[in-house]
Amino acid sequence: MTGPEKLQASRGRRTSLRRRAILIGAAFACAWTVPAQAQQDKMQPIATPAQPTAIELGTGPLPGGTNPESWHSQYGSVFARNVVVATLTPFLPDPAKATGAAVVVAPGGGFRTLSMQNEGWDVAKALAARGVAAFVLKYRLNQTPAKMGAFERSMAEMFSTTAARPPRPDPDQMMAGLAPQIADSRAAFALIRRRAAEWHVDPNKVGMVGFSAGAMLTMATALAGQDAKPAFIGDIYGPLASVTVPADAPPLFVALAADDPFFGSGGFGLIDSWKAAKKPVEFHLYEQGGHGFGMYPKTTTSTGWFDAFASWLTMHGWMKPAK
Asked: Any idea which fold 3-315 has?
């Protein structure tokens, strides 16, 4: 091999390694929805938190779900995995401040975990403070090894496989694989509307917001959720592949960081689809924020997504106090 050939081969190997590292990072971000500054934190098993207000949705145990639900802490937050029974936890505003609007909150975690605090409870508390009834959906998850060490090894293997051939699921294929989760989402909407008077909720003002995998579920609920019919949807750092927009598609709010390692460079087909269908869409592309910023305090402008979402709800009239 000549000198120039050796140099070219070396450059090729370095490029391949760089691409592999980028893909592994992207897979990690999608599965865990973490803040970039805390990527060295280790998972620590914790006792299952008390959830006295959680309501079982009646969708039954996950088929084949033999490993029991377990929880761990990481990145200053808490996560659930091996969820086999879906629940909905209400976070209700002061009745004097209730606007009548309600939001189903779907945390992310690659359908292997749920970021219950950063993308669930903290979001719901912030919505309730604005007069919006919020309901955290703990949907059923794909099974993972029961023991933490085996779980960590399984994740490492998944990263390696993803690095070799990153998955780019077609939207229809994605929704076909989410039957249990869509059933959980539909049951959440049915429960909220059934108890709307008790919870000071307007049945026509029930929307949904999701993060990463939760954003995928939010989109699936809007497109294939049959009777769920959210009044509005929020897609926070979810995939933005183009879709076939139904005639009754709800208004859509999207927030994404341009440096998101998983979805930041995949195009904006979803936005184009909504615009082409002449449906309301608002899109915030933040310069920085990475993946999984959620409610974590960060110095990036991506932290403004929640105020922007609340302003968007107000603009559409969903935040007007109930009469």
From this structure: Rossmann fold (3.40.50)
